[in-house]
Specification:
The chain is of the alpha/beta class and about 150 residues long. Helix content is about 40%, strand content about 25%. It binds flavin mononucleotide.
């Protein structure tokens, strides 16, 4: 069974809610899901998954510190071992959303392969944002499918 890691940084819960929607959708598409707050996520979670969703809130036009910390901790222990692993990014923001660039840029440094457009959500996920997050979950599950 394909395994999806959903890792997220949140302060007030919007990004956690987004992560849970992605996780539910990937599960519904038949994947096993590991859902972790960035502070709890370990490099081995990234090594062991078949695809990863990377999410944060926007903090001064950069990703939240928790996700940055996860990336910093995971870089050397996973270097060269996650090349072309499928990923998709998501962000909640207050009206800006520029922080998505920081997540996409670090994902490139890890040499992950982008398999879905990033999902940007203003505030708490509702309406069309929920549909976009569900779509991200199902795309990741499809990209991670084992033959
Ligand atoms: C310290 C701080 C800085 C923020 N900076 C930005 C910003 O630069 N641009 C933006 O659009 N939203 C900004 N926001 C708003 C949050 O990204 C937004 O409310 C987000 O949905 C919070 O997610 P969370 O509930 O998962 O913590 C900032 C919030 C905080 C707490």
């Amino acid at each position: 069974m394909a395994s999806i890691l959903v890792v997220y940084a949140t302060l007030s819960g919007n990004t956690k809610a987004a992560a849970e929607i992605i996780a539910d959708s990937a599960r519904a598409a038949g994947a096993k899901v590991v859902l972790k707050a960035a502070g709890e996520a370990q490099p081995k979670d990234l090594l062991e998954c078949d695809a990863v969703a990377l999410g944060s809130y926007d903090a001064f036009s950069y990703m939240g510190g928790g996700l940055k910390d996860f990336f910093d901790r995971a870089f050397y222990p996973t270097q060269g071992q996650v090349t072309d692993k499928p990923y998709g990014a998501f962000l909640t923001h207050g009206g800006g959303g520029k922080a998505i660039e920081s997540i996409e840029s670090v994902a490139q440094s890890f040499k992950l392969k982008k398999v879905a457009d990033a999902v940007l959500v203003k505030g708490k996920p509702e309406g069309p944002a929920v549909a976009a997050l569900k779509s991200l979950g199902s795309k990741l599950a499809a990209s991670a499918k084992k033959p």
